Amino acid sequence: METIIGIDLGTTNSEVAVIQSGRPVVLAEDGDPILPSVVGLDPQGKLLVGRAARNQYALSPERTIKSIKRKMGQDVTVALGNQNYRPQEISAMILRALKQRAERVLGHPVKKAVITVPAFFTEGQRAATREAGELAGLEVVRIINEPTAAVLTYDPNPPEMERLLVYDLGGGTFDVSIAVVEAGVVEILASHGDTQLGGDDFDQRLLDFVCDRFQTEHGIDLRQSLVARSRMIGAVEEAKKRLSTEPVVLITEEFIAEKGGVPLNLNTEVTRDEYESLIEPLLAKTLKCLDDALEDANLQAQQIHKVVLVGGATRTPLVHRLLTTRLGRPVHAEIEPDLAVAMGAAVQGGLIAGMELGPVLVDITPHTLGIAALGEVDGFPTPHCFSPIIERNTPLPATRTEMYSTTHDGQKGAEIRVFQGEEEDTRLNALVGEFAIQGLSAVAAPNQILVRLDLDLNGILRVTATERATGLEKQVVIDNMMERFRHRERTDAIERIEALFADSDDFEEEEDEEFDEGADTSDEGSEAVPEGAAQVPDDSSTELQRAVEAAEVQIAKASSLEASASKEDAAEMKGLIQDLRAAVASGVLADIRRITTELEDLIFYLNDA
Ligand code: ADP
Ligand code: MG
Questions:
Q1: Nearest atom of ligand 1 to the alpha carbon of 244
Q2: What is the Cα–Cα distance from 373 to 529, expressed in whole angstroms?
Q3: Is 84 in the same domain as 95?
Q4: I need a labelling partner for 358 at 20 to 30 A (CA). Which of 35, 229, 345, 424 fits?
């Protein structure tokens, strides 16, 4: 069968993919699947395409061209060296580099390609893209929309009609599209966006933040020096990417400036919270576009079956959080967001060549992994608050770190209990392992503890707790996570039923055990708390406290049933939950116990119905 390559010709980055053994594969060279969409001339006048051209951009902008995609279809020229080129000629240089990459990796000539363009591209812009392909020596068998390609990557042939929302945040542009897919045909119902918004703007905000800080401290504006600025651009982009998986990053650049003949180093920490507050206003704009797209498609958020994330900048955790909140459902990012469009172009090429292709399967975490921390569940302070670290559907291998802190001054140890599941209350999730980090420094709270989870392709989970100030570290390895995940699906249902059949006495006994484990929250084993989280009273072993905990479990169970209950039952449940909360607030033990039992009975009845 002939090879038809799929190309994502992006504003910032481009990729080429092909179908191998029935799956789309992005072709990498030197381990890198991404080719920056940058063209330049080196000092000797030799043509550079990709990373080398990108690296010289900040220092030699006159010899470098980036974001040529913005000019496609316009009747303009750009200067490179002492020549002028039309936009499609510059794009052709990028396409030729991708064609050559494909030929080197595959070991045979390649002639045909599917190339993607933004949904909003006009006929003129599409024609210019086609021409660029031809200039690069390719037969362009089809031009398809980027969101269409993303949908094809996720599932070209869903069993039933599916509506998808594709949220694409790249380096310099943002697009949101609503698509319908059925039997291999994708239709774009609406598309909105902002052609001047993307990850580059995040870099700029972070650059200003760090440079302002340096200027306040040393009185020197790093943005004024071409060399310093160029180094800073690279450093902040790197830091931004690390903040997608780490709660805090250290940015260091040696000899970045000079003052009175003394070299100055940059050495500054940026937390994810600080970074998020810089970019949140930009992300708010994307949500406005999303509303407009839904309105144009005449759809409500609930009518969307799947939310698909595309574009490198969607790796930012805040994007996931904002969209999950806004659309009320988990988002899909299990296919590398910056590779999904190229993969979809390859799928389209495969379909044109007559291949039968199903959904792309990737190794992902089927459940969220996280630890127990002090926090609030349904407005109640509890030590059983689930703090997620690796979100479900994250592609493997995955590494994520979050920061927690101790509660007591002089606390010597902290209990790390790792759970899998989707419930806010850890007692409704499955415990996968626990350990304590001991020998913490005798300092006042909060003492920061970093908890890192590494989950590899073989399902081995490594959990590391590190005292941030000293580097003191404790690690455990938990094997067979994949087995556990599978086991969980099977036992979930059984456990739920068993828990409901247990009478209230049994239930309290169960609770007692849990409490004994957690009860050594003396100084030795207090659990870690997320930054800024609420504190709980120390004494968790009184009867009242236990009754409150039991009440919370029932409230959590009830809340998860509310959506599926009939109107009347839901109303009754709401009433009981309110009464129970009031009882808890007033602290009357008998009332708490009585209403807890009533709520438990109702849950039992609902599950039985
Ligand atoms: P485009 O479609 O515009 O060509 P991409 O989809 O490749 O671009 O997205 C590039 C953008 O994604 C850049 O701004 C880059 O810094 C950003 N990016 C890449 N990886 C990450 C990451 N791990 N976290 C946050 N942003 C990232
Ligand atoms: Mg893109």
A1: 24
A2: 5
A3: yes
A4: 35
